[in-house]
């Protein structure tokens, strides 16, 4: 079964032998599989690094790298969290979709601010902080 995430892209196929859903939670509790935090941490660090680069040099190249990293994070969140939240799936799916929609909105505004003639650094910093907050809310 292919899951289409709210961004409209098919989610990446599961890694052979990967532990999914409730089984991941049980395996992580036993120390047999990485926790969700361990899965998200490398991408969170990448987003943080690219945030710093974007704020240091707000240009099209840094913006695209930042957006790709955020989307990788959202793809992982969609794939992993949808597996875990089967009991209250409807409410969770609505929350996830809402978060992704808000992130996309902020990324669009960020692109307008970075690529516009007058770069408002306060606005750029505010937008990346809002995106960061939304991403953190997803996995914590």
Task: Give the secondary structure arrangement, pairings included.
Blueprint: H1 21-30, H2 36-56, H3 60-84, H4 89-115, H5 121-139
Helix pairs in contact: 1-3, 2-3, 2-5, 3-4, 4-5
Describe the model.
By secondary structure, the chain is mostly helical. The protein has one domain (36-139): Hypothetical protein TM1646-like domain (Four Helix Bundle (Hemerythrin (Met), subunit A)), CATH 1.20.120. It has helices at 21-30, 36-56, 60-84, 89-115, 121-139. Helix 2 (36-56) packs antiparallel against helix 5 (121-139). Mean pLDDT is 78; it is low at 1-17.
Q: Concise description?
A:
The protein is mainly α and 140 residues long.
Tell me the fraction of residues in β-strands, as a range. under 5%
Low-confidence stretches: 1-17
**In the CATH hierarchy, what is the architecture at level 2?**
Up-down Bundle
Percent helix: over 70%
Cα-atom Rg, whole angstroms? 16 Å
Give the helix/strand class.
Answer: mainly alpha
Q: Number of DSSP helices?
A: 5
- List the secondary-structure elements in sequence, H or E: HHHHH
Brief descriptors of the model:
single chain, mainly alpha, Four Helix Bundle (Hemerythrin (Met), subunit A), globular
């Amino acid at each position: 079964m292919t899951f289409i995430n709210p961004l409209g892209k098919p989610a990446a196929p599961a890694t052979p032998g990967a532990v999914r859903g409730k089984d991941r939670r049980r395996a992580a509790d036993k120390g047999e599989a990485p926790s969700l935090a361990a899965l998200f941490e490398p991408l969170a660090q990448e987003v943080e690094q690219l945030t710093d680069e974007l704020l240091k040099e707000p240009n099209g190249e840094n913006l695209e790298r930042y957006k790709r990293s955020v989307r990788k994070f959202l793809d992982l969140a969609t794939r992993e969290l949808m597996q875990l939240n089967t009991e209250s799936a409807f409410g969770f799916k609505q929350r996830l979709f809402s978060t992704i929609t808000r992130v996309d909105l902020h990324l669009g505004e960020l692109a307008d601010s970075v690529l516009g003639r007058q770069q408002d650094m306060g606005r750029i910093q505010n937008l990346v902080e809002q995106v960061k907050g939304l991403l953190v809310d997803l996995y914590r």
